[in-house]
Design goal:
With 1484 residues, the protein is α/β, with parallel strands linked by helices. It contains 48 helices and 22 strands. Helix 2 (69-94) packs antiparallel against helix 5 and helix 13 runs parallel beside helix 19 (519-565).
Length: 1484
């Protein structure tokens, strides 16, 4: 920095002192030279020298990144010139003739030393850093401002001196150096994807100009993810995920452990905002001093004051307001970077914890989703106040001291108000934490229930449960809304307490003072009171959010600690696994004295000692619930090993696992098969052929590139198992575990798969893999090398197959009825692959325009959800009226104070009147604040949210099956978790904040214009500028908002898939790959989220700089015109102080409202554009002819199908001539059924047999899941054409038992699960009658004793504690209950003889869709016997692969390729090789 020197002694009386102001010279409006040497030269030079040396040490360790030697030389030459000028300055200062003080010489020495540091720093910053030096440029800018101040001093003191000319020249050269040093280096950096933020300098970052390109790009085009700036590597999950996890593990357990771990991880990120926050606070205090000086200047006689003072005040206004805008921008920039790191750290740790959780730990899948969305968002919002806490405390103390100087002892009055409000606010904060925890728990339950329903949507629809589950979820939603009201009461109180200091402290303070309220004292004091109250108003509103974030952090910490206590996979729970075989052994000990348990207190398998051959196939057999899945999980160390030892699987190079419920991701068939391994075409073709998937791929529109949907929803159960099996084979395993992968396959496919995969000469044999196949089937035991039979909680026998299969007792035990509970998983309903119709060009263009320009009709849509038109009019009128009244009174206080001060100036003595009115107005304003925000939070928002959720659920339930095959579960779930939470938490609140703040800003703008009418000249330009800015800004912000919401869907989907396939992921050794995938998806979601946050900061600083211009214009006009209404000028100046902050606040509110609008718009689109089922069965089946059958329909169950062809997916178009919709197949449509004709008599029992994934099409057709081709035939039930019946009504009247059992998630009772099909109708039944019927149904399937043990019908039912067979039996009991309740609708006595087949006993239609595919043959026979007994008068259509259990059915329908190839008696057809194939014929 240039030093000061003067060849001539100063004429000032105190230039040789620290002053700081001069006396007797330079119009008494300047600093002393000694002060300038000390604080504007020496001090900053010394600080820079220390920081520069540290920076050079840091850069010395970095490699060279770029060259650009020509430009580097230009910078060095400029710095060399500057160094020469500093040498000359030192020579002049040090000469005896200068007569300068030692402090001036020291300043000159440090300036010269700094110039040498410039050379070194410039050279290394240029070549070793990808951005221009922030330290160097910041110092150059600051020193230029300081040198300009000093140059003014020297020009006024000695305009002809040599030093002032050297100083002026050095300033010019330094400005050139600054321009050169601030240039970007993109042209010299290696070409790669990086954000301009990474290479931006101090000016680029301070004014957020690095976003300009993105803003204009979003204005001109539709933004995609690739159009966005890359995420700064310092913010990525890769940079912080591992570090945060390590910190978590090293932090001592205890209260606030997670907070301490976060503080350690983010220490530098949390420290960096401190300095700009201090600068922001200092500049905020400069504004009251500025107000005081301006008012004093205006009150002084024009002849007694220099014009330079006026110019100085104008310059000071520009510097203070600009500095405040920039420091606030930097503070917000650094703060939100830290908050971005918080999200990255927390989400990665939640995922890592979830991935390492034990499978035996039955956690709610919604917990992780709720934590990584709602909780993490609340944590980020709460932590925004982390720096405001300490900064506000300091500012309050300083403001109180300054107020004491103005008003004396009266300053105690606002302190009392502040302390009372603060104590109350902390009390609210303590209460709100508990309420938020309960609210989030309610959200978690509702999201969990919704996610479970979405995951099983096909089963739900087949069972006709749409209305019932909608009611269940809506009741859960109502409970959640009630919890939110408890939180909103506290939030409203916090808002009132926040506004109380701002509104009450002026009235209380001025009522307490005994000093005259002159204009200067009144408005300077009011400015100090604003400094005292404004941060408190924001802080008190943030305290509940901060306390809420702490509560959310505790929830996250609890989740992590609980799941961390679960056994880490690969390690024993209570014993160390030992090597149980030698390197040359042909067999090894799989388990030794092992006791396996899903819950340690309830062992499932005892004393397991199993030795199996290496490189051979071992079959583990046993009845349903005998412990086969438990043994599989025990081998993989996925459940607790209570005692004993198991095999160390990590001794194998590759392990593969196929779970009983196939784990599949929402991707293509090929990606599911290859997993995280490279693609090998030859091996791929071989394994696909071995599992017979090549046949299925040939029928799919896009082959192995077909998307299979979430959880493989587009595949049948057998196809899912075979994809899972193919994946295991493709991994070339050396050890493989297969849990019942052959269930659900037709005999032909099962035989093919076993021979080509498991049998001698199969792929596993060729790989010399050790394979374990768990099954309840006894047909393949002879082909195994070793057989282990489980039963009664232990190993019954083991040995070569010839020794086991000859034991009649063992064989009968394998097929016995299930007795023990064994946790298991569900399968899904068989579906068929379909191609989706493309989106029309016109629709796409409309959607693109909406992404850019938004849709302001969304607000009317929101208000319309309040209720009837009359209710909407009343509510909205009250809402806006109270907002207008609040905004007016909020800004009227300074005007009333001007009236009061003017009265004092006139010598009137009516203070009591003005004080009374002042207090009354402020209290009314505070009451209006509570009424406005309370009404919004407790009335308007809950009503709208509840209605929107109901509409979304109804739309979801009406969606056709094709929608769920094309949209993944994570995306659908995000509508009900992320989007619904945003509408609940953000939209209503930010709408109220935006309306109130916007009206307040308009009121303030009016007062500023009233204070200085000439300012109105600039208002049109200001409005025009704001219109242009918001137009450009909003087009980009809307798109970023939508991209943020859209990129969260895949992240949630990945979480859900991981929770589903934990055991599979760990068995294959894909943990690290999934963590990296989570990092990538998290970074992808962070990209638009972070850019949207920075875009909001961009708009904030633009508005702040606009206010700066307005302030400069206002002060300039006030000084030049010198109005006589000084009081109104004070009003304008005080309004300007808060005007910028209010604009910034409205920006934050509006941008958050815009974000919430995106979520609401997504929900609106979801509700309004959800495709509806278009199944029209034949002519005359248009929707307008819809018919609602009677409650007892169908009574006979007579089915007639004539010439029907159906497709997996069809295009619905409108016939222009008739104006009616018609369904047609396109070129890529795959036919499910072709020319089907079938007549089924009442009470007839029909079995449907065919290849896996095909024979279910007939059931899907009858339930209106498939699209029949128009005019292709008719289908009627009891004479009523199905095309006239709404699908939901049809499915609720037909009793269906699908392959996948569906039970409500944990937390619901047995009664809830029994009557879920029609909750509202069951309310009309007598409770005792309903209980009696439920007990009968559960007794009929053998489950009542188990239910009675647990506490009866009101006991909780945890589906995870039931085996799959038990869940199927429970679903059968539910169907029996439905059939018996139908008798009540018929007014038929319940005690109907079982052999009564008279026509007076009503029947119905029962559809069985591979209902017994996953149980053993004996259990299958048991279920069939129950069905024959309980549904004797029903028409039964049973899709099956097991012909033995339907041998006594009336007819067997054989299907192939979607056609009926034969119909006859089962006993005759199964002997026909030509019809059934060799395997089917041998089934008897």
């Amino acid at each position: 920095m240039a030093s000061s020197a003067s060849a001539a002694p100063s004429a000032c009386l105190n230039d040789d002192t620290l002053g700081p102001g001069v006396i007797g010279c330079r119009d008494d409006f300047d600093f002393t030279i000694t002060f300038e040497d000390s604080f504007l030269s020496l001090t900053p030079s010394a600080i820079f020298a220390v920081l520069a040396v540290l920076r050079l040490v840091y850069l010395g360790r970095k490699p060279q990144l770029l060259h650009g030697r020509g430009f580097q030389l230009l910078k060095l030459v400029s710095i060399a010139v500057y160094t020469g000028l500093q040498v000359a300055t030192l020579a002049l200062v040090g000469s005896p003739a200068s007569q300068r003080a030692r402090i001036s010489i020291a300043a000159a020495v440090f300036s010269l030393f700094d110039s040498f540091l410039f050379l070194a720093l410039s050279a290394w910053e240029h070549s070793r850093s990808q951005r221009s030096s922030i330290l160097f440029n910041t110092y150059l800018l600051a020193s230029l401002l300081f040198d300009a101040t000093r140059a003014r001093t020297f020009w006024l003191d000695d305009p002809d001196g040599v030093f002032v000319k050297i100083l002026t020249t050095s300033i010019a050269v330094k400005a050139v150096v600054l321009v050169l040093e601030s240039q970007g280096k993109d042209k010299w950096l290696s070409p790669q994807e990086r954000s301009p933020e990474e290479t931006g300098g101090v000016f680029t970052l301070s004014f957020f100009s690095w976003l300009n390109g993105l803003i204009f790009r979003g204005y001109r085009k539709i933004l995609a993810q690739n159009d966005l700036h890359a995420l700064d590597p310092d913010l990525s999950a890769y940079a912080h995920g591992g570090v945060f996890k390590q910190q978590w593990q090293t932090v001592r357990p205890g209260k606030h452990r997670l907070v301490r771990a976060l503080a350690r991880t983010l220490k530098w990120h949390l420290f960096l905002p401190v300095l700009p926050r201090i600068a922001k606070g200092a500049l905020s205090f400069a504004r009251p001093f500025l107000v005081s000086e301006i008012l004093a200047y205006l009150q002084a006689e024009s002849s007694s004051i220099s014009a330079n003072v006026g110019y100085g005040l104008i310059g000071a206004t520009a510097l203070v307001y600009t500095g405040f805008a920039v420091s606030n921008g930097i503070y917000q920039y650094l703060l939100h970077r830290a908050l971005t790191v918080v999200r990255a750290s927390l989400v990665t740790l939640i995922y890592d914890t979830t991935l390492s959780d034990s499978t035996s730990h039955h956690h709610d899948n919604s917990a992780a989703i709720t934590l990584m969305t709602s909780d993490v968002n609340r944590i980020q919002i709460g932590l925004e106040a982390v720096h405001e806490c300490w900064a506000s405390a300091i500012e309050i103390a300083i403001a109180a001291w300054l107020l004491q100087r103005q008003l004396g002892a009266a300053f105690i009055a606002p302190i009392v108000v502040v302390l009372v409000c603060g104590a109350a606010s902390f009390g609210v904060g303590k209460v709100i934490g508990t309420r938020i925890t309960r609210w989030l728990a309610a959200i978690q339950r509702r999201v969990g229930l919704t996610a479970d329903i979405i995951s099983n949507i096909t089963t739900v629809k087949m069972l006709g449960m749409q209305e019932s589950v909608t009611d269940q979820v809506q009741r859960s939603r109502a409970s959640e809304i009630n919890g939110s009201k408890q939180v909103r009461i506290m939030v409203t109180l916090a808002g009132i307490l926040g506004y109380a200091p701002l509104l009450l402290t002026p009235a209380v303070t001025f009522a307490s003072t005994n000093q005259d309220l002159t204009f200067t004292r009144a408005f300077t004091s009011l400015a100090y009171l604003q400094l005292l109250s404004s941060p408190l108003a924001e802080l008190f509103q943030m305290i509940p959010q901060l306390m809420g974030s702490i509560a959310c952090l505790e929830r996250v910490q609890k989740y992590i600690e609980i799941n961390s206590k679960a056994r880490v996979p690969g390690q024993s729970q209570t014993t160390q696994a030992r090597r149980l075989y030698g390197p040359n052994d042909t067999t090894f000990q799989l388990a030794k004295d092992a006791v396996f348990s899903w819950e340690e207190e309830s062992p499932v398998l005892h004393s397991v000692n199993v030795r199996i051959p290496r490189n051979k196939l071992t079959i583990v057999a046993g009845p349903v619930a005998s412990g086969k899945s438990t043994l599989c999980m025990g081998i993989l160390r996925e459940i607790p090993l209570v005692t004993g030892d198991t095999l160390e699987l990590d001794q194998f190079c590759q392990v593969a696992f196929c779970a009983q419920t196939a784990f599949l991701i929402n991707s293509t068939v090929r990606n599911n098969i290859t997993g995280h391994t490279t693609f090998d075409r030859e091996w791929y073709d071989k394994v696909v052929e071995a599992t017979a998937l090549n046949v299925d791929m040939g029928s799919w529109p896009q082959g192995d590139q077909s998307l299979i949907g979430s959880n493989g929803i587009m595949l049948s159960g057998g196809q899912r198992h075979r994809v899972s099996l193919t994946r295991a084979l493709y991994a070339r395993p050396q050890f493989a575990v297969f849990d019942d992968v052959l269930s659900g396959l037709d005999p032909t496919t099962e035989e093919h798969v076993f021979d080509h995969v498991f049998a001698q000469g199969g792929l596993l044999d060729n790989l010399r893999a050790t394979a374990i196949l768990c099954t309840h089937s006894i047909g393949h035991l002879k082909k195994a090398a070793y057989v282990v039979v489980l039963g009664n909680g232990s190993v019954l026998t083991q040995g070569p197959p010839e020794a086991v299969v000859t034991n009649d007792y063992v064989i009968s035990t394998i097929a016995k009825k299930p007795a023990e509970e064994e946790p298991n998983s569900e399968d899904s309903q068989p579906k068929n692959m379909a191609s989706q119709p493309p989106t029309s060009k016109k629709t796409q263009e409309t959607e693109d325009r909406a992404r850019q320009t938004g849709d302001f009709r969304i607000y009317s849509y929101y208000f319309a959800r309040i209720g009837s038109p009359r209710t909407v009019a009343a509510v909205t009128s009250f809402f806006f009226t109270s907002a207008i009244a609040f905004a007016f009174l909020f800004n009227f206080g300074p005007v009333w104070l001007e009236f009061w001060s003017d009265s004092v100036q006139r010598g009137e003595d009516n203070a009591a009147f003005y004080i009374g009115v002042f207090i009354t107005l402020q209290v009314i304003c505070l009451c209006l604040c509570g009424v406005f925000f309370g009404f919004n939070g407790l009335v308007m928002t809950p009503r709208c949210s509840l209605t929107i959720h109901r509409l979304a659920m109804v739309s979801l339930m009406r969606a056709p099956l094709s929608y769920f095959t094309s949209v993944d579960v994570g995306t659908i779930t995000s509508y009900f978790s992320q989007d619904m939470s945003i509408v609940d938490n953000d939209f209503g609140g930010q709408l109220a904040n935006t309306v109130a703040t916007g009206l307040a800003v308009l009121s303030q703008g009016t007062m500023i214009a009233a204070s200085s009418p000439f300012v109105l000249i600039g208002y049109p330009g200001l409005v025009g500028l704001m219109w242009i800015v918001q137009r450009v800004y909003l087009r980009t912000s809307r798109q970023l908002r939508l991209l943020e919401l859209e990129t969260n869907g895949p992240l949630q989907e990945h979480f859900l898939e991981t929770l589903t396939g934990l055991a599979t992921i760990r068995a294959f050794g894909w943990t690290s790959q999934n963590i990296r995938a989570n990092y990538d998806l998290l970074d992808a979601s962070q990209r638009p989220r972070y850019l949207l946050t920075m875009l909001q900061r961009w708009l904030e600083i633009v508005l702040s700089l606009t206010v700066t211009v307005l302030a400069v214009v206002f002060v300039t006009l006030a000084i030049q015109i010198r109005t006589t209404r000084v009081g109104f000028t004070g009003v304008g100046l005080v309004s300007l102080m808060s005007f910028g902050e209010m604009l910034g606040h409205i920006v934050r509110c509006y941008t958050q409202l815009e974000t919430a609008t995106g979520a609401l718009n997504r929900l609106k689109t979801f509700i309004e554009t959800m495709p509806k089922s278009t199944s029209n069965l034949g002519p005359g089946a248009a929707l307008e002819q819809e018919y609602i059958p009677s409650a007892v329909w169908p009574e006979r169950g007579q089915v007639e199908i004539r010439g029907v062809s159906a497709v997996y997916s069809a295009m619905t178009t409108k016939n222009i001539s008739s104006g009616r919709e018609q369904t047609t197949a396109n070129e890529d449509t795959a036919f499910a059924l072709r020319d089907i004709s079938l007549s089924i008599e009442s009470s007839e029992k029909i079995a449907i047999y065919g290849r896996t994934g095909r024979q279910s099409s007939l059931v899907m057709l009858m339930l209106k899941f498939l699209d029949p081709i128009n005019r292709s035939g008719t289908i009627t039930i009891d004479g009523l054409e199905l095309g006239k019946i709404r699908p939901s009504v049809l499915r609720s009247r037909i009793i269906t038992l699908p392959q996948a059992p569906f039970l409500l998630p944990e937390g619901k009772s047995v009664r809830d699960n029994m009557i879920i099909n029609d909750l509202n109708r069951h309310k009309t039944y007598n409770t005792s009658l309903l209980d009696e019927e439920a007990k009968h149904a559960l007794s009929a399937v053998g489950l009542w004793s188990l239910v009675e043990e647990k506490g009866g019908l009101d006991s909780g039912l945890n589906p995870g504690n039931l085996s799959k067979g038990q869940r199927q039996l429970f679903c059968l009991a539910r169907a029996i209950l439905r059939s018996r309740l139908r008798l009540q609708d018929h007014n038929t006595p319940r005690a109907v003889p079982q052999d009564d087949t008279s026509s007076t006993v009503p029947g119905g239609l029962l559809l069985l869709d591979e209902f017994t595919a996953s149980v053993d043959y004996e259990t299958d026979k048991l279920m069939q016997a129950i069905i024959r007994r309980e549904f004797k008068n029903y028409t039964i259509i049973c899709v099956t692969h097991r012909l033995q259990t339907v041998i006594d059915y009336d007819r067997l329908v054989v299907m192939d390729g979607g056609r009926i190839v034969d119909i006859g008696r089962p006993s005759e057809l199964i002997r026909d090789d030509e019809v059934m194939g060799q395997e089917g014929a041998g089934a008897s």
